Description:
Blueprint: H1 5-28, E1 34-36, E2 52-56, E3 60-61, E4 69-73, E5 79-87, H2 91-106, E6 110-114, E7 123-135, E8 139-149, E9 155-166, H3 172-196
Parallel strand pairs: 1-5, 2-6, 2-7, 3-7, 4-7
Antiparallel strand pairs: 4-5, 7-8, 8-9
Helix pairs in contact: 2-3
Amino acid sequence: MLIGTSRLTWLRCLPALLICLLVSACASSVPPPARYMLPSDQAVIASGQPSNTLRLSAPRLAHYLDVDGIVMQLDDITLNAAREHQWAEGLGRQLERGLRARLTQALPTVRVVRAEGSQSDALTLRLDIEQFQGRFDGFAVTSGQWQLLNSQGELLVMENFYAQTKLEEDGYPALVRALGNSWDQAAELIAQEIRQGGYVD
C-alpha cells in the first residue's frame, strides 16, 4: 500500500509538533513569582509644629541589591537573587518610604520630607545600603553608612549602621518580615545618633 507524499511528510513532522506542544504546555504552567512588600507602620500624625526639617535622600543601593529578586547569602561569598520571590516595588523606594515613616515617629520635633528642591535651614540625610538580605545562618541583615549634612551641604556626621534579626521560621514571608524588623532597628539607631548629637531640638 502506497502512502501519499504529503501524508508521509506530515507523519514525519508529527513528533516535532508533539514536542513543541509539550514544551509550550510546560512553559504555560510555570506559576508567576510571589511578590512581597516590607511591613509598614500605620501613618504617623505629628502633633504640634515641628521645629526642624530633615530632607531624606533616596537610599543608594549596592549594585547587587538593585534587582527585583530578594537576595539570599548562601555562604560567606555566594549571593543569589530569587526568581520566584521578588519585591513588588523597587527596594530603594520601599526603604525610603519606610525610613521616612520611622524617623517621623522617632523624631517628633522633626518634619521628615523627601529631598526634593532646596529648603532653607534643612538638614539632609543620605544613606548607602551595603547589605539587605537573608543569610545562610538564619538571620536577616542590613548594613551601610549614613551621612548628615547641614543646609550648606557641609558634613556634620558620618556613621555606619548594622542590624540583624533572627528569622522566626523558614520561608520568604518570614525573611521579609525579619528584614523589615532589621530596618526598624537601623532607623532607630540613626534617630538616636541624631538626637544624641544635638543636631535637632
